[in-house]
Amino acid sequence: MRGQVLLALLPALGAHGIRIIQSNDDGWAELYARSFFNALTAAGHDVVLSAPAENKSGSSSLDAEPARRSSACQYNSCPANSGPIGRNESLPRLNWVNSYPVTAMRYGIDTIAPPFWNGAAPELAVSGPNVGSNLFLAVPFSGTVGAAVYAAHDAGIPALAFSGASDGTLPWNTSPEPQRSKVYAQLAARLTDAVVKSGKPYLPEDVFLNVNFPEVAGSCTDASKFKFVLSRINIGIFSEKDVEWCGDDRLPTEQSVIDADGCYVSVSVGDANDKTTVAADKQAVVLNKLKSILTCLA
């Protein structure tokens, strides 16, 4: 616990980074989200988590004002009869909202996070990592994606949505921390840092990144083994050409990247208006920003 407290205090102690709002759809006490929070904080970013009080997977872009709880939060992480929003009093950057992922992201941006930053707004929004993949047809229904899209489209904050194929929900205090949670946190933090280091504006307007990690298994159990591949969300049979990359003007689909033999991470440039793939000109902006960490499928 003492180590977690020190991690939460790093931004206040002068570490260099940016203001990041984090949410998810699996619940504020889910291990994947907490591992990612710790990784971002350890990297020097000033992170505030605002996520649903319980698992709200599959809630897409639903948004409703939070109501008071009558039962305990997920994994007994808050007591019964708590208010509509709450926080971990010993780690106040960890907050829950008794509603949907979009609502939690909205409250995080408008109400919960600004007091930590002297009234300033988040510079970047991240969502996840989700427990399970969010590929192609699942994207419109994903609460993890919904939270990121709200940030990008409604709040004008560049956003990244992360999902991991290794599933199985676990509470925040699982010990020892499983390798899958550590690897996903490290990979998500690495890509987040690459976006930040690319400079402002971090992403084009009305754009989010939909990022999917393969299973942490077999030869893919070390974060250093994974490679990032630029991809597209939908199949795109009738779509305009993609940005030219890896000798082709059609990017691989997320599913083909995840299914490929190797430790490949799909990074799709999504349109925050409709949760599909953006046009080639915006893909090109992201490609130029992230080219140093992107690779081609073997």
TrEMBL record:
InterPro entries: SurE, SurE-like_Pase/nucleotidase, SurE-like_sf. Keywords: Hydrolase, Metal-binding, Signal. It holds the Pfam family SurE. Residues 20-218 form the Survival protein SurE-like phosphatase/nucleotidase domain. One of its GO terms (molecular function) is metal ion binding. It comes from the Eukaryota. Residues 1-17 form the signal peptide. Belongs to the SurE nucleotidase family. This is Survival protein sure-like phosphatase/nucleotidase.
